[in-house]
Amino acid sequence: MKRDSDSGGKGRPSIVPTISQVAKASGVSRATVSRAFSRPEMLTEATVRRVKEVAGKLGYVPNQVARALSTGRHGNVALIVSDVANPFFPPLIRAAQLRADQAGLCVFLGNSDEDPAREELLVGRFIGQVEGLVLASSRLDEEHIRRHATRRPLVLINRDIEGITRVLIDTAPGVAAAIAHLAELGHRHIAYVSGPTTSWSNQQRRNAVRREAEKRGLKVIAVPARPPSYDTGRLAATQIVASGVTAAIAFDDLVAQGLMAGLAALDVEVPKSFSVVGCDDVLGETTYPPLTTVSARCADAGDVAVGLLLSQMNGGVSGEIRHKLNSHLVIRASTGPAPLKRRGR
Amino acid sequence: MKRDSDSGGKGRPSIVPTISQVAKASGVSRATVSRAFSRPEMLTEATVRRVKEVAGKLGYVPNQVARALSTGRHGNVALIVSDVANPFFPPLIRAAQLRADQAGLCVFLGNSDEDPAREELLVGRFIGQVEGLVLASSRLDEEHIRRHATRRPLVLINRDIEGITRVLIDTAPGVAAAIAHLAELGHRHIAYVSGPTTSWSNQQRRNAVRREAEKRGLKVIAVPARPPSYDTGRLAATQIVASGVTAAIAFDDLVAQGLMAGLAALDVEVPKSFSVVGCDDVLGETTYPPLTTVSARCADAGDVAVGLLLSQMNGGVSGEIRHKLNSHLVIRASTGPAPLKRRGR
DNA sequence: GAATGTGATGCAACCGGTTGCATGTCAAGC
DNA sequence: GCTTGACATGCAACCGGTTGCATCACATTC
Fold first, then answer.
1. Percent of chain B topping pLDDT 90
2. Which residues form a coiled coil (chains A, B) (predicted)?
3. Do residues A276 and A267 lie in contact, with contact meaning Cβ atoms separated by under 8 Å?
4. What CATH number does domain B172-297 carry, 3.40.50.2300, 2.50.20.10, 3.40.50.720, 3.30.2170.10?
């Protein structure tokens, strides 16, 4: 076979020792070396110490791949997101990573770029080498997801499929609060700038807007911004202004930020003549003016998802779990009283 | 042993077939099945077809882990970044991912959170399961990096260590252009808002500022923003205004954006009374006012780095490679003529 | 028709760990 | 002193692939 599995591409072999070499050097069997690392309670304290000492001297590190082959536990989990570049995800990724780390796991990251086919490809490539998967804002259809879930523990984020463990960021309360906030400021006509039709979050937000607006007797129009981005938000400004509404609530912060830029370009002042609310709270105070938004705790979602995955991997968890994370409104400076000329119509 | 390595945590076993089962079902040896997938040119066309047909029917997929054990090729690469949440990295990650994908590789993502110890831990955990590593803005010391590089092909991004393949985003020309731009607008005193001292990019940018300013007879002061972020940028505003400069060039866009917020809070108008230049061009037009910045092609860096890693993994590449990516100034709306009262000193 | 060559396939060892079971040792209990 | 049992360790099979080498069938050549 003549491998040199552990030499760099270039020079020195710098072979890493195997279990056999440690066994020989410390005068015990391979089994004993193995147990010194994975089940030390089976051995004499003295033996463990001696083996570990020799191992340390030789620079031995158990080969994760070989171990995975015989135990089926590779110590890896996969995280697939729909768009790394969307500021919603980095905090989520970071938190997921951190949680996995604490459990001694490595994270495979996949970026589907909103493309179901790519997502399916990634899952296929990952699934053989991971113990579990987290799919954030998956664009896969239900059937595919269910199939993958039979092969590996799987947790969804912001996707609501019965029988599969999922973490849902429930923005409905926050959105409702936002509508209430706008109503109190005197707005009677508002726009919802909507995101991907296949997105669970979008459906949830749209419904919350509708419900709450109806309750308070506000009129709502929907304007699309697809795919959700700064640019599509900016482009939506014209249509929104033309529709005569005095406030808008956007699918996410990025769209809201774009919308504000579009409004500025049309000389519509925020919040003096128009109010804007975002969603996710991923931009903090960095917009101009600082954005009133629905805080979505995206980092928590990553943390919780990996946590649930872990407990599922460790055999626990029989029943289905549907973990909801709540949200709240963060009022900053992009919302203000409805302009007089339009107020109360 | 009684594993059921491929059942989900819950119910049905849904066993994935092994090479032996395919062999039996198609009436050939395990070796032949193996070759049908990894070296089909060794077999009759008819045999390959028959084996693959059976395999397809059974839902057989070669076990990546087992393959890795015997060949040493796991089909994985690692990418470690210093901060996923910094907008500099997502495009880089995305591009790296895409490139790896095309080569059929999976990506392990690590986030060191600017902590060398964490970074070292991650490398240790990854190195046994990957064929190569990309370290972006590594905070590891040179000795560690060299050691890892002897074990696996390794490519650095924005870190300049002799003898190790590296991709450097050369912002010096862009920074020089920025200084020239400010000089032409009449600024005579400027500030450099500096980033991490251990960062190669920071050193490079600081030097470029100094060199070009000296050439044009501008005075430069340095003000730290550490760690580089929106908040530290904002906090630096007071000191910068007090120092009497009329323009600042920041370590990165995030710091620049924070600085602009800090200036706004002090009622200093940008660009009317103060000019700001960023670095990296990761925020596009989304700041207010849109930021004049040095474009850094971070996505290209990810793409190129993985490309170099691939060629290194495939045995090629004897000599050392030091790939430079150039930069240029993007002028938007955060820079303008020096205010009169201060101009010409 | 025997010798030779060629190309497809199988055999069996191997990668580096883990683990069920057998063995061996030693102390306690009768 | 012998049985019993607990406990530490070793043996050898196994995980699911890959691959060097042997074998075998068949075609070619003289």
1. 85
2. none
3. no
4. 3.40.50.2300
pLDDT tens across B85-129, in order? 899 999 999 999 999 999 999 999 999 998 999 999 999 999 999
In this structure, are residues A54 and A25 in contact, taking their beta carbons and an 8 Å threshold? yes
A53: confidence class by pLDDT, cuts 50, 70, 90 = very high
Contact yes or no for A333/A275 (Cβ under 8 A): no
Neighbouring residues of A329: CB distance < 8 A, sequence distance ≥ 6 = A174, A177, A178, A181, A292, A293, A294, A295
pLDDT in tens, B131-155: 999 999 999 999 999 999 999 999 9
Contact residues, A window 286-315, toward B, CB-based 8 Å cutoff? 286-288, 312-313, 315
A56 pLDDT above the threshold of 50? yes
Nearest CA-CA distance, residue B208 and chain A, Å = 28
Say if CB A263 and CB A274 are below 8 A apart: yes
CB A5 within 7 Å, strand D: no
Note the CA–C1' distance, A261 to D21, in angstroms. 72
Query: Which pLDDT score, from 0 to 100, does residue B284 have?
Result: 86
| Separation between the CA of B32 and the C1’ of C10 (whole angstroms) | 8
C-alpha to C-alpha distance for B167 and B132, rounded to whole angstroms: 15
Asked if strand D contacts B30 at the CB level, meaning under 7 A, the answer is yes
**Dihedral sign of CA atoms A30, A36, A38, A42 in order:** positive
Which of A194-198, B5-9, B279-283 has the highest mean predicted lDDT (pLDDT)?
A: B279-283
**Side chain identity at residue B276, one-letter code:** V
Give me the residue from A65, A151, A285 closest to B8, CB to CB. A151
Instruction: Give the pLDDT mean for A313-331.
Output: 87
A242 touches strand D (CB under 7 A): no
- The answer to whether the Cβ–Cβ distance between B70 and A106 falls below 8 Å is no
Residue-range domain boundaries for chain A = 19-62, 76-169+298-326, 172-297
| Tens-digit pLDDT profile for residues B287-303 | 989 999 999 889 999 99
Average pLDDT of chain A, as a whole number: 91
Reply yes or no on whether the pLDDT at B345 is more than 90.
no
Common-topology check for domains B19-62 and B76-169+298-324: no
Note whether B115 contacts A: Cβ–Cβ < 8 A: no
What CATH homologous superfamily does B76-169+298-324 map to? Response regulator (3.40.50.2300)
Whether the ω angle into residue A289 lies within 30 degrees of 0, i.e. cis, is: yes
Window 162-221 of B, Cβ < 8 Å to A: none
